[in-house]
Each structure stands twice: as structure tokens, then as C-alpha cells.
From TrEMBL:
Protein name: U3 small nucleolar RNA-associated protein 22
GO molecular function: RNA binding
Domain Nrap protein: 208-350, 354-514, 520-677, 693-917, 919-1008, 1067-1208
UniProt cross-references to InterPro entries, sorted A to Z: NOL6/Upt22, Nrap_D1, Nrap_D2, Nrap_D3, Nrap_D4, Nrap_D5, Nrap_D6
Pfam families: Nrap (PF03813), Nrap_D2 (PF17403), Nrap_D3 (PF17404), Nrap_D4 (PF17405), Nrap_D5 (PF17406), Nrap_D6 (PF17407)
Gene Ontology CC: CURI complex; small-subunit processome; UTP-C complex
Basic and acidic residues composition bias: residue spans: 48-76
Keywords assigned by UniProt, alphabetized: Nucleus, Ribonucleoprotein, Ribosome biogenesis, RNA-binding, rRNA processing
Lineage: Eukaryota, Fungi, Dikarya, Basidiomycota, Agaricomycotina
Length: 1213
């Protein structure tokens, strides 16, 4: 359909598409290229429907009828057009696009994506010329007579070519020989031959596999033993490399490459030189791999069953007991498969029309998530697994063999889905298989023509089993089961995005274009491990020989150990490192990365439990108990529990809830230290660095402990509940009964940046001035309804004052040590009809509350002032002027405060508190995100705390189903389980979010696609009214988020740190107001607070400062008050920024228009000064121009700040 539409548009479309592809290819960023192409093609498709009036619909096969239509136009009336309606076949194609591809637009996006991820096969003439020359060279190579392997390697080393022998390396006592003969056959294999190649990540080149069949005469029947066949293959490859290097007719660069770091899978890589010759194929971004394989040989294939042992080690003393070598045998079998796999893919391509496109979609999806090759962190085990992705589609199309009873729990046979599915349907069916199948419990045997070669029981030594349709090899033999757990998790998350997205949302970006390899947004815990000093606790020579190298054996043991230790605490564990790279021919063995990252996705239901149970005491001498003690070491102990049971157990000691979140990391550290001797600085996590951002300095914390302060969110909630009981117990002292007391404060919903602390009132004098801030927790009191309330807004405010006075008197008389005082006003401006009064309550324990009274009649009275003629249409209402207009404006402001304070705040509090209970990581994510906004001088002044909480709520709820009746297992798959991952996802969202589109957050447990979504969006906008960022601040947030994201990516390589993310640059401000830190009661909360500011300077350390004020003022922050005053005074002059968490500087940016000369006028709204004569122009009419008077404003700011301001520093200073 799309191709026909493009033909209708004319001949200009193809060149445009070609130029677009070339520009994207040169950009080097696959994700951006995919996105640009998709958007461009989609926009071209939409443009065709809105062209000039001269273009008409000519049907999907427009080319066939264009001339006829033009003839009709000429023979018809002048200026008339005959519009041809779509035919039934065309309508059927449109309907199929909707049914088979989710939507027509989704199909257009797929059609735009696929050409940009495939090589330009029509530009492959230089490659074909090179391949012909290479074929001629290989078929004319001379034979090499049999000789000792060491003598043969010395001969080649003189030519600069090392033979990549595998371990155990040949010695002088070796009694077998190596030789060379020209290939029996040369086959172009792999994805290039079948035209199923897909662009890899990080600029990796396309692979052109040249399978070279080694003659059977080179091998003997016993060569399958002790890696002898791999030694002969290595020599064969080295001879080929030497011959190509010596041939001047093939200008190319030669390298060795070992797939997955396995020396037994070494190949020869040929890269073209950019010399402009007829064989220069460098523009294709491709490289040739020469892969020696075995076609027919005297080696009996039945000896290569996964259950057989083909390695004899010196430590294997018991000849009767042979441990199988499944990986060794699988690697051997892989040498026999290039041709059979080529024929298998070719058959699928011919029989299934959508196979090629479906495979491309699956490979793109996998590459975006690190299941492929790349220089960034990729998931271990998926290098060189192109055949496996194709076999998944083979399984979907053709089904599988009956499930083997001997493997796991077994299951039902998967029935074939047929060959007529679309590419999107095949792709989604493959994801459904990956999301549902548990490889640890059940093996997969793809339907084979003649059944499978080896019985199912022979694969019992493999962790995961997936045997392809050729019955040759288990394609998942070397893939860690933990990596498959991550693959399953990603498939589930993708299906959620496809199934739960509304029609208005486009999941294409998330599924195919978004980069998912960023560790900190993908994993709950990231551990950086230096393996340079790693040693296996129980090193097995047999295991090393089976894996091919010590490194691979170490990695396999490490992953399995961590998976066993974490158990159901983790949903998935993945080892991340760059894939294997090329090496020069002089280097025989591959180099392995010494530093790897371990990514862990937690199951929040089990991840943070304190105790792991083992065998009961009755099995003290059993093998199970011995294994448990051996595994956990000194951590294992016999304990008795409350239910009377006595079991072996491991207990993780923690002091607070923050440390409890570290339990999975503690387990990883313990296991790495015990089993691999990796400890200290060799193991790095970032959780403690994030925790430090949410803690006060150690000296202040010690003061809290000395004074007996109550600490914690639960302690604050307990204090709130106690206060509510006291208030409700005093109903007899009031004319109206108290119906409800509602919290509306971050400290009472677990989202305050710092943990609430209550220092007893008598001990507050021990706190320094720089740490004397006492936050007031907002609560709302609702009395029963009564007709005795007055109908005048000013009188209502007076009645509230009377209630507060009565409540303060009664409370102080009933509760010992409680202080209560009535306070008025929070802003520089005051309105008599606006709710201004509050009651500050300070308990004896040191908790401070600020109570307000909610009277619903206020809203009605304010509405009457705003609209005193509701019965008339808007066009007929009289226009308010003078005093009425001012009163209406005051009523609008008071109504906004009333709605935000008494309607939205309690609802918002309940919704956010529910999310904190629903998601264990939500509260921590909000706290870190608030700290980030505050550190960059945006919180409170430009972005409210409620806005930050809603942003975090969106990140947690964007793919989740309704919470009504859901279980932990049915929660959103992609919801973070750690605050570090939650914060990274918030930053990831902010860097790409278009602020102009708004945001709908389903806080009422409603689906985003339901009718409630518009109302929820209105509620969000009302909550943020007056506090949401303007365009300047929104762009500022986006820029900061992008810079933060780059820092997070830099942390992967150690080039950045957590604290750097929260350091704020000030170079871009026009001027900065520096404040005196000693006078800020919140200075101790600053990120880089200087302890010397609050250190006692008296002669005696325990002496009380005489200047310390005995009065207690909850919520008193002079710096915040100064900021509000300056913002009110200079609202039209400068844009002000500051850190509300202990900031000692205020940044300012001039309004751009004020710095350009303008004519003077009375009440201009800013302090101005005449333009200097040098700058004034000569024309008389342009005299009298003024600009902003910067020096006068600086002086005014210092006067307003009085003793708080230190100095004002302009940018030029």
C-alpha cells in the first residue's frame, strides 16, 4: 500500500528518501536515524492527503490510471475533476493494515524503519568483486604437509601471524600434527547471504560470513578429544590469514575475533582499505568473516552428544565417572552448522512472506536492549546469536516437537501459528513466547523434518535448552539463565507498552527507537566489579576446559552464584560488558574486559527481607545443610524463631529503612568476597552516595542523638495521630464538633527530602543557628456543618481566628508542654477575604504542626463575587470596573488558594501516600528528585513539591494497570524497585518531555485511556496553577535533565560521580546575590555545607550562646522570605532562582527586553536610567531612551536584604 502511494506522489519521493537515508547514515546515531526516517515518511504520507487542490485520489494503484484520469480531465468540463473512489481491494488493504499492524500509522512507521536498518545491497559491487578475488585466492592456496603444531606456529610467527591455539596449548610432547589443504567448498553464509542483515549498535559493521569447508582428510577419528579439532582449525585459519596478508591483490586489514571471548570460536576478519580501488567496499560499512567449518569428517557425530565427555584432565582420576562437556560439544557442533543454517533460513524466507521483516523488527528490538554486539554495555551471552532470533520465528511459524518428559515440568506442545501472519504479528508472537516461557523449567525443541538427533535427556547438563530445526545444536548452551530472565522481563515490559497504550499514545518510539541500554534507568542496582584479582574458590580444570577459558568459566560461576544467593529477591540479573573486539594477527588469545557491571532488577515484594532460611535443625549433618554453610560461610548460623522453628539462616543486620534497601547489595558483596576473593574497592555501588544526599551532616546528626530527638517518618505520623486524638477529645470545648483532621504535608506522606526530626523544646537551645529550622507540618481541620457560620467572607476569617484562639487555649491546658500560637499571612500581600490564618502547634517532643480550618461555604461566596450573574449568558453580563473589578480579582486569587489548599492538597496527599505504600521505591525517588530540583535552584520558586511528586507518579504509573484488586505480581513490569533507578527514569523522561503537551497522571487508579483522563489532567493543571514552570524554566529543566543524563552515562565508565549531578553552575546568571550563611537556619541542609559555620566558637564547647533566641517559630526561614519579597518586587524585572534547602545564593536573570533601549514612560514597571550619550543616536525623535538601572537595583536588593545579604556579584565581576 505504501509503495503504491509513493508511486502516486511522483518521481521526487525516491530521491528524497534516498537523501534522507544518506544523511541519517552519516549521523551515526541509529536511534535518531530510525526516528527521523519514521517521522519523515509518516509526514510525507500525511502530506499527500493535504496537497494542493490539483491533486486527487487516484487509488492505491494510481500509476495505472493516471493517464486515463488526465484524459478524463481534458475531455470533461473546464476546471472540473473526476475523483475516483478507492476500490474494494484497496479498502481491504487499508483494513488489513489496521488489523494486522495495530494501526495504519504503525505500519507506516514500520515501513519507514526497515529500509534504514538494512545494508545497501545495490551498492555491493565492490564487495562482490572482493569476494570473487578472495575465492580465487583460497582455492589456489598450496598445501602444507603435516608437521608438529609448535614447529608450524614458529613458521607462521616469522610472518607476523600467531596461531590462535586453544587451551590446553600444544607442547613438545604432542603426538598429533597439523596440515593444510585448499578448501573443499566456500559458501557465502550468514545474514548477508540471506539478506536478513540488520544494522547493529555503536557503528558495528555488517558481517559477511564466508564459510570455508576444511577438507575431511585433515582430521582423524579421535580429534574430537581434548580440543584437538580446535587446534587444527586454528592452524587452518592462521594459514589462510598468512596467505591473504601476503597477497597484494587483496588490499585489506586482517584481524582475529573470538565470539563471546571463546578462543575455540576464533574467526578471521577482513576490513577493506579506503583506497578507492574496484574492491573497496568500505562504504558498505561491512566486514568479511572467514569461518572454517567441517562438512564431512571421520569424526562420529554421536560422540558429540551434550551428555558425553570429550575432555580428559589430569585431575580426573576416576575414569569410571566422566563429567559431561556440554559447552565443548556444542562448540564443536557449531562448526558443522553454517551451511545447514543457511538452508534453513532460506527455506523460512521462501515459505513465510513476512519472515524477513519480522526478523528485522525482532533484531532491532533486541539491539536496542543490548542483546547483540556493541561497544557499550551489552548483555552477556547474546553475541553471535543471529540464528537464535531466526529460530524463535521458526518456532512461532512451525511449532515444536512434543515436550520432553525428562526435562523440567514439561508443558503443552506449541502449535504452529501459520505462515500468513504479518511481520508485526510474528514479532509480537515472538515477544509473547519470550515473555511467557521459562527456560529454566522447560526446554524447547523446534519442529524438525526428521526429528531430533539427540534424545531430550542428553541436554540435562544445560541450564537452558533451545534446539533449532536442524537438530544440530542447543542455541542457548552458553547463555546464562539470568540473561534469559532479563530477556523475559524486557519482553513483558514491551508487551505491556503495546497492549496498555491508548490510541493517542504511540508505543513505536519506546519499542523500536528508544535506547534501553542505559544501566541506571534499566536496573534497580548496578554493581561495578573489577575482576583483575578474582579467583574462583573452587576452580575446576574440567570446567575451564569445557568453557574454553578461565575467564568464561569464572563469569559463568559468578552469575550462577549471584542468582542462587539472591533467589527470589531479583527478577533478573545480567552481566554487562562490551562485546568481544578484534585483535591483531600477532595476538593469539582474545583479551577479556577486566571490569564488568552487574545489573539487578529487584522483586520489591521479597528483595528487602532480613532473613534467608535454610534447612531445619534436624538436617544438621545432611548434604543440604553442608552446602548451605559452604555457600554462605560465616553468615550462616542456626537460629530459633518466634514460631518455635530452629533452622539454618542468614540474617542481614540493618539500622534503618535506608540500610534495608542495601540488603541485595550486601548479599552481592558478601558472595563476591567469599567465592571470588573480590572485595574492597573492587566492588562499587552508588546507593550510599545517593543516601548521603538525603542525610544531614554527621555533626548535626550527632547533636540530634545527644538531645534525644525523635527521627523518622513513622515517628511524625505517630505524633500526628496523637495530636488528632487530643483535638477530637476536646469536642465539648467547641461549639462545633471536629469531623476530620487531614494531613497535607510531604513529611506525613514519606516524600520530604530529609527525614523528619523532632528535637525536644528544652533541648533546642543546643542547636546552632545554622541548623535551627523547625518545619511546620500542614494539617486541615474540618468542623461539622452549621447554619450559624456568617455569609460574609471577612467575617468567616474572623470566626476562624476565634476558633484558633479557643483551640490554642484548650490544647495548651489539656496537653502538658504543648505550645500553640495563631499566625497570620505567608505572602507579602494580604487579602481580607482570603484564608490567611493558621494555628502553629509545637508539641513537647518538638513536632510542629500548622493547622488550618476548612469551611466549604467560602467557595460558594467566592463564586458569587467572581460571577454575580450566573443566570445570564456570558455575552449579556455586565463588565465589572473599578472597585468591582479589583474585588473580583481578589476573589479569583482567594478562590485559587482555597481550591489548592483545601480541595487539591488533601486529595493529592492521599493519592501520593497510597503510591508510597504501593511502590517501595516511590518515596525515595521523590525525595531524590526534589533534591535534584532544589540543587538546581528550581524547587518551590518555580516547580512546586506537588509537581515533582506528580512527575514521579507518572513515571511509576505510565504502564501500570489499575491498582484496584491487583497483586504485587500484576503491578507494572517496568516500575522501578529502587530510588536510584526511579530517579534515572525521571531524568530520562524530563530530557525528552514536550512541556507544551501537558501530562495526565492516573492518580485515581483509572486507566489512562478512560473517560476520566481529561478530568485528571485538569486536576493536575489546577494543582500546579501558579507553580508550574514557564517556558524559560521549562527549557532550563530540559537542558539540566540532558546534562544530568550525560553525567549518568559517564558514571558507567567512572568519568562522573553522583554528587556532580547535583552541583549547580552559576556562570549563566546575570548576577548572584550572596547571603550570609550563619544567618540561614537551613544552611545545614545544603549539599556542600561547611561544618565550620555552625561549629561552636565559644571558649567552652558546652556553653549556651547568649544571643540564641528562646522563641520557637515553626517554618521560619528568612532566606525564603527574602526570596519571596524580591520575587514580588521585581516580578517584571528579573527571574530569580535559589535553593530552598540551605541555599546561600540567589541567582537572577534579567528580562531580555529590559536590556534594550526603550522610550521612557511613567510607571514603566522597572527602575530605569537614561541611555548614555555615546550609545544614543543622533536623531531627535530617538532621544529619551532608557534601560534597566542595574546599579540601583543592586543597591535596592542589598537594602531589602539588610543583614542577610553579603554582596551582589554581577556576571562581569
Amino acid at each position: 500500500m505504501v509503495n503504491d502511494l509513493k508511486r502516486k506522489r511522483g518521481t521526487d519521493v525516491a530521491p528524497q528518501t534516498k537523501r534522507l537515508h544518506q544523511q541519517q547514515h552519516d549521523a551515526g546515531d541509529e536511534a535518531e536515524a530510525y526516528s527521523s526516517a519514521a517521522e519523515s515518511d509518516a509526514s510525507m504520507g500525511s502530506a499527500s492527503d493535504h496537497e494542493a487542490n490539483g491533486d486527487d485520489w487516484h487509488g492505491l494503484d494510481g500509476d495505472q490510471d493516471t493517464k486515463q484520469d488526465q484524459t478524463n480531465d481534458h475531455t470533461g468540463h473546464s476546471g472540473s475533476h473526476i475523483v475516483k473512489p478507492p476500490t474494494g481491494e484497496e479498502l481491504r488493504k487499508i483494513k488489513d493494515a489496521t488489523d494486522l499492524y495495530r494501526s495504519t500509522f504503525f505500519k507506516l512507521q514500520i515501513d519507514a524503519l526497515l529500509p534504514n536498518v538494512r545494508p545497501k545491497y545495490n551498492h555491493a559491487q565492490p564487495l562482490e568483486a572482493f569476494l570473487l578475488a578472495l575465492h580465487k585466492l583460497l582455492m589456489n592456496m598450496p598445501s602444507v604437509s603435516p608437521q608438529h603444531p609448535l614447529h608450524a606456529s614458529r613458521t607462521l610467527s616469522q610472518k607476523g601471524v600467531a596461531v590462535p591455539y586453544v587451551r590446553p596449548l600444544p607442547t613438545e610432547d604432542t603426538n598429533w600434527k597439523v596440515s593444510f589443504e585448499k578448501p573443499s567448498e566456500i559458501v557465502l553464509a550468514g545474514s548477508w547471504a540471506t539478506k536478513t542483515a540488520v544494522k547493529a549498535k555503536d557503528g558495528a559493521k555488517y558481517e559477511v560470513d564466508v564459510a570455508v569447508e576444511m577438507p575431511p582428510a585433515l582430521f582423524q577419528e579421535k580429534d574430537y578429544m581434548n580440543a584437538r579439532v580446535f587446534q587444527k582449525r586454528a592452524y587452518y585459519l592462521a594459514v589462510v590469514a598468512s596467505a591473504i596478508a601476503e597477497n597484494a591483490g587483496l588490499p585489506c586489514e586482517l584481524f582475529y575475533e573470538s565470539t563471546s571471548g571463546d578462543p575455540r570460536r576464533t574467526t578471521l576478519v577482513l576490513r577493506s582499505k579506503c583506497d578507492g580501488s574496484p574492491t573497496d567496499f568500505s562504504k558498505l560499512n561491512a566486514q568479511i568473516r572467514i569461518v572454517p567449518y567441517i562438512g564431512q569428517s571421520p569424526i562420529p557425530l554421536q560422540r558429540l552428544s551434550p551428555a558425553r565427555s570429550n575432555i580428559k584432565t589430569a585431575a580426573q582420576e576416576d575414569e569410571s565417572r566422566e563429567d559431561p562437556t556440554p559447552l565443548y560439544n556444542t562448540t564443536f557442533m557449531l562448526m558443522t552448522t553454517p551451511k545447514s543454517h543457511l538452508l534453513s533460513i532460506h527455506h523460512l524466507k521462501q515459505s513465510v512472506p513476512a519472515f524477513v521483516d519480522a526478523l528485522a523488527l525482532l533484531r532491532v528490538w533486541a539491539n536496542q536492549r543490548g542483546y547483540g554486539v556493541g561497544s557499550r554495555m551489552c548483555v552477556r551471552g547474546f553475541e553471535g546469536k543471529g540464528m537464535w532470533w531466526a529460530s524463535i520465528l521458526d518456532l512461532v511459524v512451525n511449532g515444536e516437537e512434543p515436550p520432553p518428559v525428562s526435562l523440567g515440568k514439561g508443558g503443552t506442545k506449541r502449535k504452529p501459528l501459520g505462515k500468513g501472519l504479518s511481520s508485526y504479528q510474528l514479532f509480537k508472537a515472538a515477544l509473547d513466547f519470550l515473555a511467557r516461557h521459562n527456560f529454566h523449567e522447560e526446554g524447547v525443541f523446534v519442529k524438525a523434518k526428521d526429528g531430533h538427533r539427540f534424545p531430550p535427556g542428553s541436554y540435562s547438563s544445560h541450564e537452558a535448552v533451545f534446539v533449532d530445526s536442524t537438530s544440530s545444536v542447543n542455541l542457548l548452551a552458553d547463555v546464562p539463565i539470568s540473561s534469559l530472565d532479563l530477556l523475559r522481563y524486557d519482553a513483558q515490559a514491551t508487551l505491556e507498552a503495546l497492549d496498555h497504550s491508548s490510541i493517542s499514545e504511540d508505543p513505536f518510539q519506546t519499542v523500536f527507537l528508544k535506547e534501553h541500554r542505559d544501566m541506571f534507568a534499566r536496573f534497580d542496582i548496578v554493581v561495578r566489579v573489577d575482576l583483575s584479582s578474582a579467583e574462583m574458590r573452587k576452580a575446576s580444570a574440567h570446567s575451564v576446559a569445557d568453557h574454553g577459558s578461565v575467564y568464561n568459566a569464572l563469569m559463568t560461576t559468578l552469575v550462577s552464584t549471584l542468582r542462587r544467593g539472591l533467589g527470589n529477591r531479583a527478577k533478573a540479573i545480567a552481566v554487562l560488558h562490551p562485546t568481544s573486539d578484534i585483535r591483531p594477527l600477532s595476538q593469539a588469545q582474545p583479551a577479556n574486559p577486566s571490569v564488568v557491571h552487574i545489573g539487578i532488577i529487584l522483586d520489591s515484594e521479597h528483595a528487602f527481607r532480613l532473613v534467608d532460611h535454610g534447612p531445619p535443625a534436624e538436617e544438621t549433618e545432611s548434604e543440604r545443610t553442608k552446602q548451605f554453610r559452604e555457600f554462605w560461610g560465616e553468615k550462616a548460623e542456626l537460629r530459633r524463631f518466634k514460631d518455635g522453628s530452629i533452622v539454618e539462616s542468614v540474617v542481614w543486620e540493618v539500622k534503618n529503612s535506608d540500610e534495608r534497601a542495601h540488603i541485595p547489595s550486601m548479599i552481592v558483596r558478601h558472595l563476591l568476597k567469599r567465592h571470588f576473593s573480590i572485595g574492597g574497592d573492587a566492588v562499587q555501588t552508588w546507593q550510599s552516595q545517593y543516601d548521603g544526599l538525603l542525610r544531614v551532616p554527621q555533626s548535626i546528626s550527632s547533636t540530634y542523638q545527644t538531645t534525644g530527638a525523635a527521627v523518622g517518618f513513622k515517628a511524625a505520623l505517630t505524633a500526628f495521630d496523637t495530636l488528632v486524638k487530643h483535638i477530637k477529645a476536646l469536642d465539648d470545648a467547641f461549639p462545633l464538633a471536629v469531623l476530620n483532621v487531614s494531613p497535607a504535608c510531604p513529611a506525613l506522606r514519606y516524600t520530604d527530602v530529609f527525614v523528619p526530626v523532632a528535637v525536644p523544646v528544652p533541648a533546642r537551645s543546643a542547636l546552632p543557628k545554622s541548623a535551627s529550622y523547625l518545619p511546620a507540618m500542614e494539617i486541615i481541620i474540618e468542623f461539622e456543618k452549621s447554619a450559624r457560620w456568617p455569609d460574609d467572607l471577612r467575617a468567616i476569617q474572623k470566626i476562624k481566628l476565634a476558633f484558633f484562639e479557643r483551640l490554642a487555649t484548650v490544647l495548651m491546658g489539656a496537653v502538658k508542654g504543648l505550645h500553640a500560637s495563631v499566625v497570620l499571612g505567608e505572602r507579602p500581600e494580604r487579602l481580607e477575604i482570603q484564608d490567611e490564618a493558621a494555628l502553629d502547634i509545637v508539641t513537647q517532643e518538638g513536632w510542629a504542626f500548622r493547622a488550618r480550618i476548612w469551611h466549604d461555604r467560602e467557595a460558594t461566596l467566592l463564586d458569587r463575587i467572581i460571577n454575580d450573574q450566573p443566570h445570564l449568558p456570558k455575552a449579556l453580563r455586565r463588565t465589572a470596573s473599578g472597585e468591582d473589578a479589583r474585588e473580583r480579582q481578589a476573589a479569583l486569587q482567594a478562590h485559587e488558594v482555597y481550591t489548592r489548599r483545601f480541595i487539591h492538597a488533601p486529595r493529592h496527599h492521599r493519592a501520593i501516600a497510597a503510591l508510597c505504600h504501593r511502590f517501595a521505591a516511590f518515596a525515595g525517588t521523590v525525595r531524590i528528585t526534589k533534591r535534584w530540583f532544589a540543587s538546581h535552584w528550581l524547587l518551590r520558586g518555580h516547580v512546586s513539591e506537588e509537581a515533582v511528586e506528580l512527575l514521579c507518579a507518572y513515571v511509576f504509573l505510565r504502564t501500570s494497570a489499575p491498582a484496584l484488586g491487583e497483586t504485587a505480581a500484576s503491578q507494572a513490569t517496568s516500575a522501578p524497585s529502587s530510588k536510584e533507578r526511579g530517579f534515572a527514569q525521571v531524568v530520562e523522561f524530563l530530557k525528552d518531555w514536550d512541556w507544551t503537551t501537558g501530562l495526565s497522571v492516573p492518580l485515581d487508579n483509572a486507566d489512562q485511556a478512560s473517560a476520566a483522563a481529561p478530568a485528571l489532567r485538569q486536576r493536575l493543571l489546577a494543582t500546579l496553577h501558579g507553580l508550574c514552570p514557564n517556558a524559560v524554566v521549562a527549557r532550563r529543566i530540559t537542558a539540566l535533565a540532558k546534562a544530568t543524563w550525560e553525567c549518568l552515562k559517564g558514571m558507567e565508565t567512572g568519568a562522573s560521580s553522583v554528587k556532580r549531578i547535583f552541583h549547580h553552575p552559576v556562570d549563566h546568571y546575570d548576577f548572584v546575590v550572596e547571603l550570609k550563611t550563619a544567618l540561614s537556619p537551613r544552611y545545614y541542609q545544603q549539599l556542600d555545607a561547611d561544618p565550620s559555620v555552625w561549629t561552636s566558637k565559644n571558649k567552652y564547647a558546652n556553653a549556651v550562646d547568649k544571643d540564641s533566641s528562646p522563641s520557637i517559630m515553626p517554618g521560619f526561614d528568612p532566606v525564603s522570605m527574602l526570596y519571596d519579597d524580591l520575587k514580588f518586587v521585581y516580578t517584571d524585572t528579573v527571574l530569580l532562582f535559589y535553593d530552598p534547602l540551605g541555599g546561600n545564593r540567589i541567582g537572577a536573570v534579567w528580562q531580555p527586553a529590559l536590556r534594550t533601549p526603550r522610550p521612557f514612560r511613567v510607571l514603566g514597571g522597572f527602575s530605569s536610567t537614561p541611555v548614555p550619550k555615546i550609545e544614543a543616536k543622533a536623531k531627535e525623535k530617538e532621544k529619551g531612551l532608557v534601560i534597566v538601572n542595574e546599579r540601583a537595583i543592586f543597591a535596592e536588593i542589598q537594602r531589602i536584604g539588610s543583614t542577610l545579604t553579603e554582596r551582589v556579584v554581577p556576571r562581569s565581576a
